[in-house]
Amino acid sequence: MINEEMKKSAMQRAEENYAGGNMNCAEAVMESLVYTGALNAPRKVVAMTCGFGGGGGMTGNSCGALCAAIMAVGHEWGREDPYALPAEERTRNLRMKGRRFNNMMHEFTQKFGTALCRDICKQAGGYPKRRDICDKLVPWTTGLAVDHLNLSEKESDALPYHENIAELK
Fold first, then answer.
1. 116 has which bridge partners?
2. Which whole number is the average pLDDT over 57-66?
3. pTM: predicted TM-score of the whole model, two decimal places
4. Which residues have a Cβ under 8 Å from the Cβ of 169 and sit 6 or more positions away?
5. What is the DSSP letter of 160?
6. Do the Cβ atoms of 149 and 39 come closer than 8 Å?
7. Helix crossing, 4-19 with 131-150: angle to 10°?
């Protein structure tokens, strides 16, 4: 369980990482989680997030901070070896695991109106002004990751599905 003090520390470090201009949004989130110990992972995982800044290679697609948060939670709660489960259990297991990530997306889009970097930039008045939103978005998303890292499997399994392409409930 990650305590409130560690959560605040991770959020503050993410804010500093991003505001300093030395890291993109995805790197800032992941590095803060690893550095503070909120995520028990080698520092090398920060490298996985490098390409997600600017919505993935600056394409404006999925928010890099959100992608990093989902990757961090997946590191802790994802399926390390899906083939370890019998074939008939894999889909059910994936759908149960998916609830946590579906809720992360839902909470993010409720807060920011979209999960697309290009639309977040538009809300701010264009890419150069994105920091008006992203300076707040990066630490908030770090806190979102901590909240979902803290959920037990039982708590996660009880979450409802929100909007999703498979129309799961």
1. 62
2. 98
3. 0.96
4. 160, 161
5. P
6. yes
7. 150
Q: Which two tokens stand for residue 51?
A: 């390409």
Please list, residue by residue across 12-42, b when 16 or more beta carbons sit within 10 angstroms of its beta carbon and e when fewer do: ebbbebbeeeebbbbbbbbbbbbbbebbebe
Residues 57 and 80: their CA atoms lie apart, in Å, by 26
Query: Which residues, including other chains, have CB under 8 Å from residue 121's CB and lie 6 or more apart?
Result: 60, 127, 129, 130
CA distances 101 to 4, 21, 29, 86, 128, Å, are: 21, 28, 16, 23, 30
Among the residues of the chain, which ranges form H helices?
4-19, 25-36, 45-48, 64-77, 87-112, 117-124, 131-150, 153-157
| pLDDT tens-digit readout, 149-162 | 999 999 999 999 99
**Comparing C-alpha atoms, which of 48, 56, 103, 96 is closest to residue 72?**
48
Alpha-carbon span 121 to 106, nearest angstrom? 19
Give the type of residue at 169.
Answer: K
Helix axes 117-124, 131-150, angle to 10 degrees: 140
Residue 141, classed as helix, strand or coil, is helix
- Quick one: which of 13, 1, 18 has its CA closest to 53? 18
